[in-house]
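User: Before I run my own analysis I want an independent prediction to cross-check against. Here's the chain; please return only the C-alpha cells and, at the end, one sentence I can use as a sanity check.
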Amino acid sequence: MFFSRATIFAGLVIVPLVLFIASSVSSFSVLDSLAVQENHLTTEVTHNAYSDKDGLNAERMFERTRRFDLTPVDKTKLGFSESGFWHVVTVKNLTNSRVRYRIVLDNPTIDYIRVYEVYDDDVKHVTSLGDQQPGISRAQLAAPVHLLEINKTSSQTVLFYTKTTGSYFLPIKVFEESSFIRYQNAVSMIWGAFIGVVLLMTVYNLILYVGGKERLYILYVGYILSFLIELGVVHGYNFYILPEATARVASQNIIVLNYLICYFTIRFAMEFFKIEKTINYRSYRVSRVLQVLVLLGGLISIFIKEMYAAPLFFVIQIIMYVFVVSVIVKKWREGIKWAKYYVISWCPLLVGAGIGSLLFMGVVEYNFWTRHALLLSVMFEMAFISMALAERLRISEADRLYQASHDPVFGFPNISLMRNKVSSLAMEGRYNDFSVISVAVQKYESISPYLETDELKLLMHEVATDIERKLASELMLINLESDARANSTAMIREGVFAFIVTSNDRVLLEKVLNELASDQPKTYQLKSASLRLNCTIGAASLSDCEKGVEEIVNRSLQGIEIANQNKSNIWWFKTRSNDVVGSKLKIATALKNALLADELKLVYQPQVSLVDNKVIGLEVLLRWDNNLGLGSTDEFIAVAEDTGLIEKVSEWVFEKACLDLIRLREQCSFKGVLSINVSIYDINSGTFLSYLIQTLDKHQLKANDFILEVTENVGYEYNSKFLQRLKEFREFGFRIAIDNFGKGRSSLTYLSRMPFSQLKIDGSIISECLNDKTSQEILKASVNIAHSLKYKAIAQNVESEEVLIFLKEIGCDIGQGLYINKPMTIEEAKESLSSSITITTKTVG
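Assistant: C-alpha cells:
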C-alpha cells in the first residue's frame, strides 16, 4: 500500500522536478553563452574593478585609470569591505550597425550604484540604481540593468560606483538586446517555478496542519517561506511578490533572514524527530540553547553592519548544522525510518548553500549554475522533505495504531485488541459460545527486576509460546495476529497472558487446563540464570457472563485473583463466582471516586537539620478518611498499585503539594523543599515525568523544590530500566531519596549506581536503636554509608529526646518524627512555620 503511495508522490513531485532540472542542463549552458564572451565576433568587452579607499569622484577615478595609477582588484572576489568599489566597463561594437546592449549587474543586494558614462573624456552621471535608491522601478530593483546604445564600430565606457553594507560581489554581464530577452525569460521561468513550488508546499503543509494539528507542519511552512524571502533578496524577485517597502527591509536584513532559517531548521528537526524534554533531555536542552543563540544573533544583526554580522552568522550556522546532523545520525542509528529522506534532502541543500555562500564571498567562479545553485537545491530539498513528512505521517499513524493495540515493551496484542476481537466474534455469531483463558506467571514482579529487558522479553515469549502450543494441541484458538510467533496470545498486563478458545466443551476445557497446570513448574534456561516458573490460570465462558462480551476478559482475570485467594492454580469463573470477587475492587472504586470528589487530603511533617535545628523541608503524607476499615495509607496505596490507580493518586498528590508550597512561600516565607513519596510504578511510567514537568511549568516551580522518595524494593537493584528512569528524573532536576533504607536488601553497588541524594533510614531501626545493639550498629553504618556516597542521612520515627541525642552523636544530618513535630495540616504548618523555623519541642543544644 505504501509503495504505491510513495510511487504516486514521486510521480507527482520528484519526477517532474528531476525532468525539469535534467531538461534545463543544456539550456543553462546556452544561457551562459548568451552574454558577450571574450572571443565574441561582434562585440568586445573589458571589465576592471578598483577599490576606492580615497573617496574619488568619477572624473578623478577615470583619469587615474587612464594613467594606470590604480591597481585592479579581482572583480569576482570582493567579499565584505567598508570600501566603495569602481567597476569600469568598456563595450566596443564591431559591427556596421547601431546595437543596443544591456549591462546586467547581477547582485540586487547592492545598496547604491551610481552609473557614469564617458563621452570624449567627459564623465557624466546618467542614473542611480540599488535596492536602497529611491524612485526606481520594480524591474530595476529586482535586476539592476543599464541600457547602452553604441553606434557602428564605436565603443562606450561606463563607470559603476557601488557602496553597500553587505557583499560587494558584483558579476557584470553584457548582453545584446535579443540575447538579454532570452536570458531574462529563462531567469523569470526559474523564479516562477521556485515560487510556485514553495506556495504549493505551503498550502500542502497547512492542509496537513489543519488535519492533524501537529506543530511540525507550521514550522516547515515558516522554514520554506523564510527561504522564499531570503532567496528573493539574493535573486531580486521579492520586489515582484512583496510590497516595495517590505522588500527593501528584507534586503537590508538578509543575515536576519538567514538566522530565521536556522531557527526554523532547529525547531523543525526537533519536532520531526520527536525530541522531547522528558526522553531526550540533553538534546532538547542543547536545542534550546541553540535557539536562543540564533535568535540573539538575529537580533544583534539588526543593529550592526552586514560585513560584521556575516562572519558571526557563519560560525553559528556551522554549530547549528553540526548539532542537527548529530541528531539525524543518532535517530538514524535508532532506526527512525523516515530519517533517510531527511538525510537525502540535506545533501543538495548543503551543496547549494555552500556554493551560494562561497559565490557571494567570491571563492567559486560565477556562472548560471553557481548563481542558482541554492535555489535549485532548495527545490530538491522541499521535494525530499515532503516525502519524509509523508513517510513520517504514515509510520506515526501505523505506530499509534500498533501502540494502541500492543504492549509497548513485549509487543504482544494488548487487552484493547483482545476486547475488540471478542466483540467482533460475538457480532459475527460464528460461535455459539467461546471462552477466554488468562494465565499469570507467578511471582512475576519478583523475577522481572533481576532480568535485563531483552532477556525478560525472550523469557515471556518462550512462556507464551509454550502455553499457546499446549492449548492449541487440543483446543481451537482464535488468531490475533498472523505474523507473530505466538499469534493467538495477548498480554493483558505484564506477566499475564490471555487466549480466546472457540470450544464450548467444558469437560474438554477443564481437562486441558488441568494438564497445563500439572505441567508446572516449567524450567527456562537463560544466559544469566535458570528459572522454574509456575502459572495461575483463570477462565470464563461467554455463557457465564451476564453482560456478555463486556465482562468476559475481566471475569477471566478475576478467576486468577480468586485462584490466588484460594491457593489454587486454576479457577473457572461461573455466575455464582461474582460474589467472591474480593474487596480490592470495592476499595479501588471508592478510591477512584474519592479522587474525583477531591476527598483525599495532605498533611506535612517537618524535616529538621540536626546541626542547627532549623526546618529545612516537609514530608508530604497522604490521608484518606474512609468507611472501608482501612487503617493505614499503605493499605489503599497497595490496592492503587495493583489496580493501576497509583499514577492518578500520585498526580493528585503532586498537584496539591505544588499549590500548598506556593501558599507556604507566599504566606510564611518557607524556603525549604517538599519530600513526596512516589511508587516504583510512577518511576517506570512513560507519562509521569511529563506530568510533573507540565505541572511545574503551570505553577512556575522548579524540580529542585521537591525530593522524590522511592521505597527500597527487593529486586530493583539490577533493573536497568528503573535505573535509567531514575536518571531521567535526576537529570531534569529532581532530587531522589531512597526511603525505608535497611528494610530491603540493597547493596552498596545498588546505592552507588542509583542517582540518590538522600538516604532515609527505616523507622523500625530508629525506634529500636536505644534498646538493641544491632540496630545501633546498623544505624551508624547507614549514616556512614550515606556520607561516603555524599548523600544526606535522614532518620524518621524520632520519638524521644534520647533518640535525637544519639542521632546527633553519630552525625545523622536530618530528623523527623513525633518528638520533633507531628504531621500537620497546611493551616497548622503555616502557623508553625510563621512562628518558628526551628524545632518547637524540647530541643537539644
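Sanity check: The longest helix spans residues 177-212.
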